[in-house]
Sequence to fold (549 residues):
Amino acid sequence: MSKWFKSGTPWIWMTGGAVSLSLVAVLGLLLMIGWRGLTYFWPHTIYEWQLSTPEGERYTVIGEIHDREAVPVAQLRGAGLTLEGVTEDTLTRYLVKTGNREFVPLDFRWILETNIVSRSEPVNMAVIERSHNGNFYGYVERVQENDSAVSGDVREQLLARIARVDELNERMEDLQKGEIGSINHQLERLRLKQRKLDLDGELTDEALAAIQAEEEQLRADYKVLEKELFALRDEARRDSVVVRDMRGQEVTISLGEVLDVAWPNNMNLLAQTGHWFGEIGKFVSGEPREANTEGGVFPAIFGTVFMVILMAIIVTPLGVVAAIYLHEYAGKNSLTKIIRIAVINLAGVPSIVYGVFGLGFFVYMLGGSLDRLFYPEALPSPTFGSPGVLWSALTLAILTLPVVIVSTEEGLSRIPSSVRQGSLALGATKAETLWRIIIPMASPAIMTGLILAIARAAGEVAPLMLVGVVKLAPNLPVDGNFPYLHLDRKFMHLGFHIYDVGFQSPNVEAARPLVYATSFLLVTVIVGLNLTAIGIRNHLREKFRSLDQ
Fold:
């Protein structure tokens, strides 16, 4: 036994077991998050309950089961329920999502099994997804055009007219974000141009007349586009659908606010799978609604990826240059040791401290100075003197800089000194040796540092709350208006979106599944970014493998 311990075999098994347990825990966590998040998009069965009150009154509830739990009978009796004739120790209660927010006081309600008289799954029960007020559950009675009933199959007519409204909504969105947005952007630039000329004392009558003429032309174009937009809105509101809800009353819903309709109780497995993929696609490509508790997360995905790429562009040259100086040029003295210790210690600074530094130095000091020097006409409204995507990327670049420096230095230290000496002996300068030999050989280590930097930066939230991220960004940092790349704009981030939905949402029950879905999406984005960087690193490793020979 002592020989077995001395051989080191037990420690190998212990290490392997610890790694296996860690891997199982990580995979289990990811599977749990993925399951809880992705099942949210599966079409759930819609039930119709006939319930009775303790006084004997009966009423109807329509909705989908959101959760269920077993509650001790003693706890229910302690809450004031009589529960006559109940002999069980526990009773099941269901958390039901009823929708129909404008007519029903509770979007979610608990139903105790003793109150259930009957439960059915009507095949003609429809789920109507709307742009506001959430889902609407009920029976589709008829489709109307200009308040007149439309003949023909109700479902076919409804789906065809929703497709028509979707096309109109797309045209309205393109009009608002395209031509109308461009005119608004040009009007703002004209206003700033006039103010700049006024501040510089160059606002002559001729310049003012030219600006006013251009402004009048833009406003005339705006009125034409506005008229077209209002016409499209009227077209979208032409049709409506009449639905009978759980109260037994008919409700008229304009198709202008209807996004989709489905009959989940009438779907087979193939239809359910297609609906599931469609809902995931809308979640990934759509914009958030209802205080981020519904809709998609595309702005958050775009903001996360854009900010991480911008951070990588900033941190890579800074980290590589710093590592090359420390390893290749700096002397082996106490100052260099202190700098290395400081770089290593920077990796342990809490991220919120970097956020405070970014807010004070980048936003207020550097951004405010840029505004006074280059954008005085926009003051007191800040341009770069307020949190934005540029300052967020710079803050995270400083946060991840130690990782890139340490990783690059380790890669440089693994390169034999004979390679440097051989290059210099053949007549190359030190700069040529670094550029053509050393940096290519160290590029896999540089990419390793970048991978670690991306993994950390993509999941950071605390510093971003101070330097650029917001709950809802009206515009993306990239659009069709000059200069096309707007680094001063605020942006959305998946990590902050998870925090906002999970802890700041006015409807906790509705938001809970989206927390899991967004968390799984964030992990997927980070894994995708890392796999891309790993692929580049492996390519570089194969490309410069001959230099190691």
